[in-house]
Each structure stands twice: as C-alpha cells, then as structure tokens.
C-alpha cells in the first residue's frame, strides 16, 4: 500500500469518526440511563439516519465481496427481492412494533404469546446466527477485500491480523456510542461508499469498453437454471420469506426503524432505504464481478478487491479502502449492538437481574462476541463462496424464527410452547435436508427413496427454506391442538397482546 493510499485511508477513517463524535457528543452523557436510550437512541433517529443505517448495515463485504465473487448477474435477485422485504417491514411489521412499544423484535413474541420463554428462545437463535455466521463472515470478507485490493498475501495469518483490527475498532463504536453513534457513522460512510461503488461500476465497464461479449450467457442472465445459485423457481417459494425474515424480524435491521420519534418518520426512512436498494445496489453488487470474469477469469471472492485495485487511481483506492473498512465496521458494530440488546433485554433481565448499567453489560457481551467471532474466521476462509455459505447456513435459523412471528400474527389461541416446538422442529428439519454428511446423505436418500435421487433429496436450499417454514407452522398448530388442547383460529393480528402502550422514551 503506497503512502498516498495510507494517508487517504487514515484521513477519511478519522474524519468519519470525528463527524460521528461531533454529532453525538451532546447526547453521550445521557445515553446510559436505560435500554431505550442505549439501544434505540432515545427515539431520536431521523429518517435519513434510518435509511443510511439500514442500507449500510446490510451493504457490507458479504454483499460486495460475496455477490461480486459469484461473477454473475443472477445474484441481483437478492437485492430486487429485498425491496419487497423492506415494503413488508414498512406496512406490516412496523405498525405492530410501534403499537406494542417494542425495544426488540422478540418482545413482540412475549406480548403476543404472553410468555417470556419464547422470546428468550428466539433471541438465542438470533444470537447464534450473529455469532457463528454474520460476525465472522463480515470480518473475513472485509479482510479479504482490503488485502486483495492492495495486492498483499491473503493467507490466513494476514486475514486474522486485519480481522482483529476491524473487530477492535468496530466494537469500540458499539460499546462507547450505542445505536446513535452506529447509525450516524453508518450514514456518513454510506454516502461515501455508494458514490465510490457506482464509480467502480463505471470504471470497470470502461475498462472493457462497455463490451460484454465473450462473457458466457449464464453469467449475464437473470433466469437461473436448476444448477445455478438462484434457480428461477426459488423466486416463487422461499425467496420472499427469506426477505421477510431478514428485513422485518431481524433485530439488527429493525432496531434502526424502531428508533424513530414516530412511525411516520420510521416508514419514511425504510422507504428511502428501499429506493436505494432498488436503484443503486443491484448494479454495484454484480457488474464489477461480471467484468472481472472477462478480465481475470473465475477468481471467486477475490474478484471485487482485485478490480477495484486495478480501475481506481491510487488516491481513490485509498478512499475506497476507507469506505469499505467503514462498511465492515458499521455492519460489525450494528450486529454487536443488536446482539447486546437481545441479550440484555430478552435474557439477562428475564432470567438474571435488571442490570445496574446497561452500557457496561452491553460492553461485556460485545467483547465476548467479538473474540468468539474471530475464532471462526478460518472456517469462512475455507469456503468456496462467502455469500452462498452465509445464506445456506442462516436458513437453519431464519425460517423457524419466522414461523414464530407468522403464527402469532396470523392465529390466535396458540400456546407459546406449541410455537417453540414448531421452531425446534424447523431447525432439525432444515439441518437434516440441507447439510452434508455421509450419515445424513444415507438417511436422506432412504427417506426420499420413492422419488428420484435428484428430486426431493437434491432440492435447492431456498426451496427447503420454504418447506421448513411450512413444517414449522404446521407443527406449531398441530402440537397446539394435540398436546395443549387448543384450537388455533385464523385471525389477522393473531393472539391478543398484553395491554399495548404508547411509544414513549423516558
């Protein structure tokens, strides 16, 4: 890395940190008074900070590195479908969260089922997903990009050194600033990264004279074949439910939207994020990867860092490295802050005690999760595709979790225990059908003996996610009737919540 790159990188990184501090400094002394102050920024996030934070929390290295690493247009479907997920959050889930005065998404489950144990179960699943999937994937992807862009060795030792640096700085934002600092830094970084990412798209196309000839048709099509990462028919089954789960029930995303002064401000922010997702993000997560295929061949997850390093001038590559580092940091600290909220509000307060200092307990949780995530970086470094690995692994938790929300919002007279059994059943079901092992392969083939080996046993994991949701909901309703003796009744709004409260921040 040249002196110019280092100077620009350090300067921009320091500028973002200083701007965040200046915006938040008048509020730092008051943020420790309670969980709503620390985790929901005292209800003071404006729509533009909500839009910026939602956009950059999702748009990190697992998107830019992982999607471009597939080097095909097909991956843009994740972003097009995300728009639908954001609209569902805006018009379906946000009104429910605000009506029930929720600090965490899982608090809705406790109020609907009138049971703290289902809230804790879903929180534990979210925490497992954050710890074992998203945090290490973000550290690995960010480290890989930075090393690839400057032409350094991407061996495990260097990956771990960069990962440790990113984890330490990211944890500092989450620990010392709370959600307000996270959201503000997200927005400042987001403006920079979106602008530079669009510039990379233009320069990458310019590098090949805007000529895509010679690139195989399967790299350019939006209609996926059966053996592609996204077969066309998966858009009709699991894709929309994956997006509903991620954008509408995932604490890391919805926490920003629940931190507005009122629901109209929150909806304005989410709709702005949806517009950015539709008009800007698809291009920046697939076009550089496609161009890199023409320039370098099939180079996988190293594609984005390599093309950015080649097409940007030296001083701008330093700026882009700073922007990507900021994206990694903001996504990392966003997940840490959301994880701390889940643990403090849903587990510690319910089963241990009300903490004397929310900020101190959150710091302990954030540090512990950062250390454990670093230990898992080598696993992600061994995977062929970052984004496909992340999506497949998270299917283990996403649809079972979504089933608990679906049951409580669509049915009444359902016991929490029945929903919990449905969740656990879904986890086991998805794991059985999608994760490779010699023993499970034999059992799956035996189970699917009535169907061709390429039929049920070879079904795409997105289809299995849809099947998992159906199995989880069906199991919940069946157990509710057979074991708990309750007959579920379809009703939009589901179980009556405990006495709703007005959205208020003391």
Structure in words:
This protein is mostly helical. It is 73% helix and 1% strand. The protein has helices spanning 3-24, 35-39, 47-58, 61-70, 76-99, 105-113, 116-149, 156-207, 217-220, 238-248, 251-257, 263-279, 281-296, 303-311, 314-351, 358-375, 377-381, 386-410, 416-434, 438-447, 461-482; strands spanning 411-412, 489-490. Strands 1-2 form a two-stranded antiparallel sheet. Helix 3 packs antiparallel against helix 11 (251-257) and helix 15 (314-351) crosses helix 16. The longest helix is centred in the middle third of the chain and has 52 residues, at 156-207. The radius of gyration is 22 Å and the shape is globular.
What is this structure's SSE topology?
Blueprint: H1 3-24, H2 35-39, H3 47-58, H4 61-70, H5 76-99, H6 105-113, H7 116-149, H8 156-207, H9 217-220, H10 238-248, H11 251-257, H12 263-279, H13 281-296, H14 303-311, H15 314-351, H16 358-375, H17 377-381, H18 386-410, E1 411-412, H19 416-434, H20 438-447, H21 461-482, E2 489-490
Antiparallel strand pairs: 1-2
Helix pairs in contact: 1-8, 1-15, 3-8, 3-11, 3-12, 3-15, 4-7, 4-13, 4-18, 5-10, 5-12, 5-13, 6-7, 6-18, 7-8, 7-14, 7-15, 7-16, 7-18, 8-13, 8-15, 8-16, 10-18, 10-21, 11-15, 13-14, 15-16, 18-19, 18-21, 19-21
